[in-house]
Specification:
Length: about 160
């Protein structure tokens, strides 16, 4: 009886956590698929229409260069590549994840096409953007969350 009660309480706690943290079961099972099929994380994300990436690394990349699969790219080169490929970052100045994303780029963030959704509220509302940051390509595909630079480079093709 005591064992069943503990299991029941555990399940209630898990449901509570899932409900109030925005747990996305589909993303979780996609992660398991990634592990099972030996797919790369970026391949899984590319298969999703609007993947929720979340904060991948909580420590900003402060180095002048970052290692990625196909070579080395500087934050400045990545920022310029994203701009050339018409990527935009939507965010707000009060958003801690947006600050984290900006910190990943450091001074090179000045090259990013940035839309401040506190100023451009109508545009962001029309796109259904309410949680930030959101990266968007020129086709309207969105990538949500603060994304580590090496993953962003891979997702956008800037690592080639």
């Amino acid at each position: 009886m005591k064992k069943n009660l503990i299991i029941l309480i555990g399940l209630i706690i898990l449901i509570f956590i899932a409900k109030f943290t925005g747990f996305n079961g589909k993303s979780f099972f996609k992660s398991l698929e990634f592990l099972q099929d030996n797919k790369s994380y970026s391949d899984i994300l590319k298969e999703e229409k609007n993947p929720v990436i979340g904060i991948i690394n909580t420590e900003p990349t402060k180095a002048t260069e970052i290692s990625i699969t196909k070579g080395v790219i500087s934050p400045e080169s990545l920022a310029k590549c994203l701009t050339e490929r018409h990527f935009k970052m939507y965010g707000t100045d009060t958003c801690s994840s947006c600050k984290l994303q900006k910190d990943f780029f450091g001074d090179s963030f000045r090259y990013i096409n940035y839309v401040d959704c506190e100023i451009e509220k109508t545009l962001c509302d029309a796109k259904g953007l309410h949680a930030f940051p959101v990266w968007e390509d020129d086709t309207g595909k969105q990538y949500k969350g603060a994304i580590e630079l090496s993953v962003l480079a891979n997702l956008t093709g800037c690592d080639k």
